[in-house]
Request: fold
Amino acid sequence: MDANDLEGWPGVLHREGRTLCRLSRDPSELGAGPATKAQGAVFHNPAVAGSRTRSVLLLQHCIEAGLIGQGTIYALDGLSASGLRARRWLNELPSESASRISATMGDMDPAALDWAMRCHDEFPPEHGKGVLLAHLGDLRKSVLEHGRHWVDIDPYGSPLPFLDTAVQSLARRGVLEVSATDSAALTGSSKNALLRRYGARVKTDGLAHDSGLRVLLANLARTAARHDRSVTPLLSVWDSHHLRVSALVTRGVGGANQVEESLGWRVASPSAQEVSTSISAGLHPETSLDSESLPMHCFLPLSVPIDRADKRFSGPLWTGPLGDTEAMASMTEERAIEMCSTEFEDADVMKWSEHECEKEKRIVLRSVRHISDEAGVIDAPHLILVDDLASWLGSGSPVSPSVMVETLREEGYRAAVSRYGKPAFRTDAPWDAVVSAANDR
Ligand SMILES: C[S@@+](CC[C@H](N)C(=O)[O-])C[C@H]1O[C@@H](n2cnc3c(N)ncnc32)[C@H](O)[C@@H]1O
Reply:
């Protein structure tokens, strides 16, 4: 299609990360949160910029760590809309990595693909490396036309309709990145939708978004197991209106057979018996079972019979780590700036001032905030919201997460401020130690 035939072209020049594109509407006119197609001829949601930045960084880590082989990497931005995600992979990866990428932008909207390709022609990768293709069609079908090492699913609403075929399309080892904007369902506010779609229930407490991520991972793990594969979560993030999980999917019946070992329940206000069961299952650190000092939550294995009417339970959900230590540790602020931000220059095509460059840098920094700090403790059983902790202990104003972390580390435990969207920390400390750290401050 000739660029002149594209509705809205040339639109508005825009930069996200280090990558230039054109949008049919000025993104500053769009509010935060889920955007709609009606907001422009081609869908673009500026609120998802952080997710795209993390996608670039995770892809680079997986290439460096050899997780997706040594040859050509077939990557699919399955629901690509403006194509900015795939274009950012190519442009922002270092040239040695980008030269291995054959990226496909898939969408059922021909205008979106034309728009994306037109942007690519006008602003090709700075280093000139990598291949970008467009594929028109319904992802549920088209994803099976080619094997992939990397598949990204970023739909309107729930990703479930796309999961089954996406998993089948993966190479022996591949990465699946999945976004969900039906967070009202996943976090338990829309109970019927949650049960209908994900076969789960979630208590709508402060940990609801963590539970939602775990329900999404449980569904991904079950889907993978149906196709003789297992999942290793690399990164799980709750970011404003959406939940997103990225996992390495590995073919092998052995791993698939063990799927239920990583699934279970989260119980709020557990009894001493439930905490004891959690400890025996290796899901909770040893702690006193004195009824006066029980933890706010614990996990239980899937095999424990639960009363479905008991509102304290969330699940079935993923009880294993929400991320991979090495993958998360690689997502430092330094690396994000180095790969995904723009330096001020007089000849800038967007004529950005130093101030505007700094503003975009801050957005890039925000997208990785706390991720590398949390890397060393992502397997820990406790995610503790400091407001909830203060209420639980009746101790008045909450202690800041960083103070709790410092105190617990001084005691020899692992602890880190969490990226979670509410003030919180993760730790492997026993509950008794958490209580004394909070009371000592
Ligand atoms: C939420 S947008 C994707 C946003 C994009 N990934 C980004 O980073 O900005 C969803 C896109 O999926 C496309 N779409 C919806 N259902 C589809 C299907 N079954 N197959 C292929 N594309 C589909 C829509 O046309 C739309 O462009």
